[in-house]
Amino acid sequence: MKIVVLIKQVPDTYGERKLRADGRVDREVSDAVIDEISERAIELALQQKDADKSVEVVILSMGPESLTASVRKALSMGADKGVHVLDDALEGADAARTALVIAKAIERVGDVDLVVAGNASTDGRGGVVPAMVAEYLHLSHLASVDDLQIGSGVSGRQATESGTREVQAPLPAIVSITESADEARFPGFKGIMGAKRKPINVVSLADLGVDAGFPGLARTVVLSTAERPAREAGVKIHDEGDAAEKLIEFLAAERLI
Pick the residue with more confidence: 225 or 78? Predict the structure, then answer.
């Protein structure tokens, strides 16, 4: 079995995050790391490899030269090889262009049985790229799956407004997982040293047969941005025998009861 894990490099979740004037995430204000949900996707694939040594885990991502460090970390965790899509024309690519390029890169990997991704990145929160990739590749897609089981097909649970439902799909398929998946393992010294010898295939749009102008594919444009308002101080209630009444009045005014 060959599993491709889609990962994304994002600004540190626990660091400062800001938008630039053009609406893009400012990636210079904090360290670049593998998104936590991407790490959980890596862990899921590696658990499958632990159970069956014939499983091959390929890390695939799109981004600037700095992305190499994140791909190398994924290899140190236990993945077999990496694919890094690197092209200046992809700077600021929106979800539609990203999905097209990733789909072409998956096709280039070849003979892929399963693609695993996080359900939404912490920088964009769009949550649409896995589904769009599945559409480009004409593959089954299970979105936001908990307790993913991998065998001759894939199955798991999806949360709904009224509870949960069981979902399944034949292979090959694309699956996005939620934060209910296991946390990622830490790379050991042996893994870190071994990762230096593992291949990372760097490919351009030309290598993938994608026109850098993306003809026929309109680009998303951010018209305006605004800073998040500063947090205001909360309401303090001093108990003078009427604290309960004041609390009820406050909750009622905020439509919380």
Answer: 78
